[in-house]
Amino acid sequence: MGPTKAVVNGGKKRRPKGAITKARGARNAGSGRSSSGANLESKVAPLTSELEQKLAVVSAERDELLLQQAASTEILGVINSSRGDLAPVFDAMLEKAMRLCEAAFGSLYTFDGEHFQTAAQRGLPAAWADYRAKNPPSGRLEGPFIRLLETKRPVHIPDIKAEEVYRNGTAAAHALVDLGGGRTVLYVPLLKDHAVLGTIVTYRQEVRPFTDKQIALLENFAAQAVIAMENARLFNETKEALERQTATADILKVIASSPSNVQPVFDAIAERSKRLVDALSTTVFRIADGMMHLTAFTSTNPEADAALRAMFPATLSSFSWSEAISNGDIYRVVDTEHEIETLRDLARLRGYRSMLFVPLLRGQKPIGVIAVTRVEPGPFVEHHVHLLQTFADQAVIAISNVQLFQQLQESTRELSAS
Fold first, then answer.
1. What mean pLDDT is predicted for residues 315-343?
2. Which end is more exposed in the chain, N or C (fewer Cβ atoms within 10 Å of the end residue's Cβ)?
């Protein structure tokens, strides 16, 4: 059979049937590829969007972690450079806690086992700051502080207005809302060996609870605050021990160089005790036949110094500390405003509010007193008490040495006379 020829119909060539079929197949194949590509794109597009969203989340988390790491590193640097001074550490810590946790204002309190004391605060609205200054949490503890001490865990208040302390009309809660605009509050404890050493408190002025990550971040800052407090304690203890050792050695040198005169020793004790216990003033008394004799003191102002000199000698029994000193005990005046009028007037004139009396004991008998004063009311810390006891013991040694020297001189004169 010969080759197929095109059939001409009306002057037009017709394609062979086989060619038409092939052309249609080619067109269908192209259409199929286009449809398949569109389907693939429709499937890939959501996956791409999801990946981009995840990448954005991961990038944001990475940036957040970098900021937190930088903040922690900076705080550790402040801890290292501040050594015994906690004020710059607490201030830097509170600033970064507020910024990273998106808080409007905040406070950091330390706790001494009985009272909370303000250690740092930032961004407080003026009216709330004024209220807090006049009504510190060191007085009657409020609900959140009590919960913090009981649970030793963060106390998260999504909306203070929904709390019982607000509904019951507690003054501090209403002041926080009305004066400070506070709504969401987070208390994070400073813990060491399950003991509360303080708390970081952050406030928001809208109802917006803190996230778990933000609470964890504040717990990390709280842990760093405890490290700073421990470092400061160790540094200050070492510093104080060195200062005590140096002061003790200095006084021993004075004792050795003044065998016949106890006055230089009393003067040295007055000066060094004032400096080492951060006192306003120090007085040293001798006690003889029930009378207190002023032997040394540090000056405050001419008028007050003259009043102090005019007040002595005085009978020991006329003072509130007479029984304690007579029994060989330490006596503390927490607030001179509660003392007798003459002492209260002297305290006002010299500018102090609290006092500490440490007896000079020979055996069990008091032969003198070291008294130190401070501007603010309240008790003295124990290591200051121990330091003054050391000085009191040295004063007794000095008195005994002078008396022995005088006895020796008297014996020598008697022998010479005979």
1. 91
2. N
Quote the DSSP letter at residue 161.
G
Q: Are 394 and 251 in contact (CB under 8 A)?
A: yes
- What's the pLDDT band for 343 if we cut at 50, 70, 90? confident
Q: What is the DSSP string of 316-368?
A: GGGSTTHHHHHTT--EEES-GGGS-HHHHHHHHHHT-SEEEEEEEEETTEEEE
Could you tell me the two tokens for 185?
Answer: 């509050």
- Give the separation between CA 380 and CA 279, rounded to whole angstroms: 10
| CA 294/CA 399 separation, integer angstroms | 15
Q: Which residues contact 155 (CB under 8 A, 6 or more apart)?
A: 144, 147, 148, 185, 186, 187
Q: Provide the pLDDT for residue 330.
A: 94
Check: CB of residue 264 under 8 Å from CB of residue 395: no
* Residue 193 DSSP class: T
**Main-chain dihedrals φ then ψ at residue 311, nearest 5 degrees:** -80, -20
Q: Which of 80, 104, 79, 83 is nearest to 91 (CA)?
A: 79
Inter-helix orientation angle 212-257/87-100, to 10°: 180
DSSP state of 7: P
Over the stretch 286-328, which tens digit does the pLDDT of each residue have?
999 999 999 999 999 999 999 999 999 999 998 889 999 999 9
For residues 121 and 199, give the distance between their C-alpha atoms in angstroms, rounded to a whole number.
Answer: 12
Nearest to 200 by CA among 176, 224, 182: 224
For residue 227, what pLDDT band results from cuts at 50, 70 and 90? confident
**Which of 302, 284, 303 minimizes the C-alpha distance to 293?**
284
Q: Which residues contact 9 (CB under 8 A, 6 or more apart)?
A: none
